[in-house]
Amino acid sequence: MRILVENGQHSFDYLKAADIQKIMAEQSGLVWLDLNGDELDVCRMVMEEVFHFHPLAVDDALVETHIPKIDDWGDYIYLALEGVHSEQLLDDLNKSLELDVFMGRQYIVTYHPQTIRAVEVVWANCQRDARLLQRGSNYLLYQIMDELANEYMLLIDSLDEKVEDIEDQVMEQPDSDLLQSIFRIKRSLLNMRRIVAPQREVLNKLSRGDFDLVKAKERMYYRDVYDHLVRVQDITENLRDLVSGALDTYLSVVNNRLNDIMKTLTLITTLFMPLSFLTGFFGMNFFQPGGGLRNWTSSLPFFITLAIMIGLPLGMFLWMRKRDWM
Amino acid sequence: MRILVENGQHSFDYLKAADIQKIMAEQSGLVWLDLNGDELDVCRMVMEEVFHFHPLAVDDALVETHIPKIDDWGDYIYLALEGVHSEQLLDDLNKSLELDVFMGRQYIVTYHPQTIRAVEVVWANCQRDARLLQRGSNYLLYQIMDELANEYMLLIDSLDEKVEDIEDQVMEQPDSDLLQSIFRIKRSLLNMRRIVAPQREVLNKLSRGDFDLVKAKERMYYRDVYDHLVRVQDITENLRDLVSGALDTYLSVVNNRLNDIMKTLTLITTLFMPLSFLTGFFGMNFFQPGGGLRNWTSSLPFFITLAIMIGLPLGMFLWMRKRDWM
Amino acid sequence: MRILVENGQHSFDYLKAADIQKIMAEQSGLVWLDLNGDELDVCRMVMEEVFHFHPLAVDDALVETHIPKIDDWGDYIYLALEGVHSEQLLDDLNKSLELDVFMGRQYIVTYHPQTIRAVEVVWANCQRDARLLQRGSNYLLYQIMDELANEYMLLIDSLDEKVEDIEDQVMEQPDSDLLQSIFRIKRSLLNMRRIVAPQREVLNKLSRGDFDLVKAKERMYYRDVYDHLVRVQDITENLRDLVSGALDTYLSVVNNRLNDIMKTLTLITTLFMPLSFLTGFFGMNFFQPGGGLRNWTSSLPFFITLAIMIGLPLGMFLWMRKRDWM
Amino acid sequence: MRILVENGQHSFDYLKAADIQKIMAEQSGLVWLDLNGDELDVCRMVMEEVFHFHPLAVDDALVETHIPKIDDWGDYIYLALEGVHSEQLLDDLNKSLELDVFMGRQYIVTYHPQTIRAVEVVWANCQRDARLLQRGSNYLLYQIMDELANEYMLLIDSLDEKVEDIEDQVMEQPDSDLLQSIFRIKRSLLNMRRIVAPQREVLNKLSRGDFDLVKAKERMYYRDVYDHLVRVQDITENLRDLVSGALDTYLSVVNNRLNDIMKTLTLITTLFMPLSFLTGFFGMNFFQPGGGLRNWTSSLPFFITLAIMIGLPLGMFLWMRKRDWM
Amino acid sequence: MRILVENGQHSFDYLKAADIQKIMAEQSGLVWLDLNGDELDVCRMVMEEVFHFHPLAVDDALVETHIPKIDDWGDYIYLALEGVHSEQLLDDLNKSLELDVFMGRQYIVTYHPQTIRAVEVVWANCQRDARLLQRGSNYLLYQIMDELANEYMLLIDSLDEKVEDIEDQVMEQPDSDLLQSIFRIKRSLLNMRRIVAPQREVLNKLSRGDFDLVKAKERMYYRDVYDHLVRVQDITENLRDLVSGALDTYLSVVNNRLNDIMKTLTLITTLFMPLSFLTGFFGMNFFQPGGGLRNWTSSLPFFITLAIMIGLPLGMFLWMRKRDWM
């Protein structure tokens, strides 16, 4: 638990409810309370007793998992947001980072069980430059959401690169590792889409002016983040199509390869089966080795047989080439 | 049939219409009548003569099966809801549990042919704590629907685990049992989606304030359940995508395996066919065993043949490796 | 052509326009004129001269085929409906039964080239119980549409059973008959969907109160039929998904079977090819039967060869089992 | 270029702008100017100088190709429509026929580079019966659009027949010609859909009363054509589903056939490979023909071998039949 | 950086902010400032200090990449547009050309990092004919967007040709080069769709009259460009369907080819396997060459064997032909 106030750099750990109330009473400006890694009981106490948030909203924040959403509770707005690790594939549903935000006119309360880079960045910026806080809770929320969107951008860029790698590889060496990569990235894009769409919707509502708490002139900032997320979503959809295409290509290439192999098999079988029959025929005991049945003893039949053995496969080979089998 | 009234823990079995009417007349507070396992005639009698529900609504409740829906009949609201067994796969259409609810200002009538855990839980809670009833029929309905949504959550979580198991298994040992699991879970998710979407819509209507019977300040509770169902639906869609992906992976892996087998077949055939021809050639009766045709009797041709028999497959093997067939 | 009037059981055949007009003038109550199997000219004459329907509406009813629709012509409503044979698969586009209805305040005119069970049932009910007619044209229309919906229900139930049979069979004995069944039922569901969706829309419009002719208190009846059709549509969609799943299963099972066969082929080939080479090798004329080349005459090489011939396939067999090919 | 006026049958060729203006000034009734096969310059001159159409509308009509659309220019409505050759497959994008119509209160101007049967039919009807023109430009436009819709109907009926032929053939003799037919008809339906949907939208706008130029009582006529196009679209979608089903069936049948062939191959190989090994075994030079190694010379081993050679394939055959491979 | 003003042909390079302001102050008419290849700092300085654009809008233009969008900033409109190289396949996401436009009442500012042909064309036209500038900023924007749409048209036409080539080739010689072409064109169409849809939306907003800056009578021009883009989008969708069809055809044709090959393999194997067995049978050492076992020495069995060797394959061949395997 840490608190950032406008006029100065005061930041504390493990305060009591009374302390927070005191700080808030003293401040005329914006207060940012960040709950990160604190015990649930403490958080609940702070939310309910200091800020008097509605029990349903507190439950939403502390107990339940949500897809991004925004609820207007009159004096404050509750937002459930999702962050991402920009350097990781998002192939596990649980890798996304939940961030719960309560925005009032004079305060922002953020709650996140795991450390989120975007929050850290904004916190550090605000410590460095007090003016950022002076622009009000709307602007602070914008900053946090903008940083979250940046993480999305970085993640989608790294996914983009991976898809390009896959596309290069798929024609050259399609193996089962590549298949695994394809399925992992597919899943990652699936999760991406699942998170981005409702988060975009949250920003859409913020920028449309549905909330009394959001000042008209701040809306264009939310609109800006909204545009970023639209682009993230757009690229996500595009990458999904590309990955699907890559999978189709993979299957076609593997299929082609199987065809090639089958052709070779057929070729070999077709060339040698008749030859084997011929050698078997002259290996039968109807004929005497090196003599016996008169008409087979001269060398002529041997050389005719030899000629057939050379000519037959050659002829079949040419016939197959003509029929485009090779 | 059992009745729960606000002031006290009275609960009865097999009452007559007159008794119920008497109880209701005595009560100023909320009455919950639960019809479970009673004969259809009794239920119909109670609904029509005691509560004067519209015949169409009674038919909807007692005779017909419905997807979740909500009808406003002025003095009361009729809801057809679906519950689930949270510990079972939902792979059979008939495994879902129908729950019919009539909500008036002073009463709730629930009808369900099978026992539903969510109803039992809320009933027990209300018996334990009379204050729950004192909050009115809206809140009681919320509690029942919230418990139903919890069951959904549990079911979807168990489905989630099963999908993860499938995903782990599909790359390692794809067999036809796995295929069956995939198809069963696919079907389960299909049924899930079929139930959740209209139930969510019911809650949407309740939370939007379409009904005079629903008090404005209770709507946020329905909104909360609505959010849960949105999340259930979201996970359901996600799991459907994952299962589809697992099926694709399965098919790709099986296909790859087939390719491997075909390659081996081709390899063996390609290596041994020419050898068999060779042995057949020298097995023909043109040659005399251990002598005969002069030029074949020395050991040299034998060793040349031997060399070919060893060198040829080796050469082909290397050529195939070069063409990436192995 | 037959006429049913409220006060009494009079029903006639082959009336003239003047007669119908006379009957209608005499009646203060509802008149139901059913045109079934009559010549087009007669029907047109009745519609245009007795009821003065708009030529476009008459053309819609008599000449053209329509998907279900509803048109408001002020004094009367024209409905194009579709019935089904509940005991038949609907795999042919032309098997559905068109029913054209004109509903005025005092009359219902039905036209259907083929006998429709739903119409017969309602007709018989009305003959038996005159009160059904006394409830007005709205209620009579509801009765007809409700019976049509019942037929849908029966058909969809029988389709449901067929799909269950297919699902049972597909894992056990997937043959080309089953494939045909799958494709037929798929088509049947396709036609089902094609009919139900617009018919549902017709009922939606009736229940929404778009028409002056429909009394407010009758709307809930149409709403009831609408709910039935929503359920029919819902099951139809579900069955479509199940049938698609069954087809996927079929293909997977057949594919697996092919894999099994290919494995066996490969196994046999792989086991016997080297053996055949061995026997061929010792069948060459480089060796003398029962003697000749000294080092081959003893029994030792024979028993070594025998050992190889037994050991080699055994070894390969074990190797393949280890690689999970069996 | 030809002109049809209300009072009389006058129709001219190659008029000058002044002439047209004169004719129009003389007429109190409807004038239909049909531009077909005239040079672009002439058409442009007429449109711009006589009728004073907006340059953008003239460009739309003369230069550019459009999907069906409707533009309201105040004094006149511009429509881009598409006709079809009812007797041809629509498998080429360029086979559809563009028809541009300008409808004013007192005139209709039609432009089409190719002859369109629907236009010819309506023209002939109007020449025959002057009353058709007297009903105004709305009704004339309806007639043209109705004829266009009839052509659609004829085309879709012929497509329907072709799809039925394909469905009959696909189970019996699936060859690559059938495959080509399937792909051609698929493409034709694709083009059909592409044309019908926007044309339907044009009629929807006309029947909804979006335009001041369209009189209220004429709207029901456009509504009628709209219903026809809805039906065409409905059948198109249905046929697309059927063709997709036919393609699936084709692939399944071909796949089944491949399976049958592979089974036979496996059967033959599996039956004869062991036999070939046996014959090879006894063909080795370890044994002396007709004697040699004592224990092989009697007839008993020969008959045992013979028994194996008959019994082995028989046994395998039965085993395979049991495993359902045949 | 270059500037075009209404009264005259003045165009400059590398001006200072003060110069631009001076030029603008002097002009009563339209000023077009084109920033192409200038350093970011210079562009930012011009945008912020001369035109006082909002920092978010400047960031949108200079720093970030966007899908086409339009933002209303009151005194000016910001548009992010995408151009294409009409002579290139659009198979790379980065090949599209971003064009940022700020439109005020008296000025147009365009920014594009790469040269865009459409901009050059309009610039040249305006230099040639000063009247084009006199029609105001709305008309100038229309001209630029119309030229962009023309480039789209050219690109989509060249894609259309490529798809036709592919369709011709796919039945005749389906090889892996064709497969690559199919996947590249698929991707190109994907990118096309991604760009066209939002750009169309921009034009829709312009033509709908959402912006005070857009004069009512200019909207029909934007509507015209909108119609072009609708057509581009329509053809794109159509081509996508055709390419999908081509891919299906490709796979079917390759599959058929595989079937043919497998049939040949099976045929050869099936014909020769029994023959090989026969020759092996008579090659066993149970028989003495040219005599031995009495009953085999006469010529009769030899000729019977010969007859079998000729008759057996012939019979099988006919049987297979009957079963349609050839």
Per-chain topology:
The structure is a homopentamer of 326-residue chains.
Chain A: E1 2-5, H1 17-26, E2 31-35, H2 40-50, H3 55-62, E3 69-72, E4 77-83, E5 97-103, E6 107-111, H4 117-128, H5 131-134, H6 137-172, H7 176-208, H8 219-283, H9 294-297, H10 299-322
Parallel strand pairs in A: 2-6
Antiparallel strand pairs in A: 1-2, 3-4, 4-5, 5-6
Instruction: Please report the number of helical segments of chain A.
Output: 10
Order of helices and strands of chain A: EHEHHEEEEHHHHHHH
User: What percent of the residues of chain A sit in helical stretches (DSSP H or I)?
Assistant: 55-70%
- Structural class by sheet pairing and helices of chain A: alpha+beta
Q: Percent of residues of chain A in beta strands?
A: 5-15%
Q: Give the strand line-up of the largest sheet of chain A.
A: 1-2-6-5-4-3
3D shape of chain A: rod-shaped
Average pLDDT confidence of chain A is 83
Q: What summary fits the major beta sheet of chain A?
A: 6 strands, mixed
Oligomer: homopentamer
Number of strands of chain A: 6
Rg of chain A (CA only): 36 Å
Q: Tell me which protein chains meet in the greatest interface and how many residues each side has.
A: A-E, 47 and 54 residues
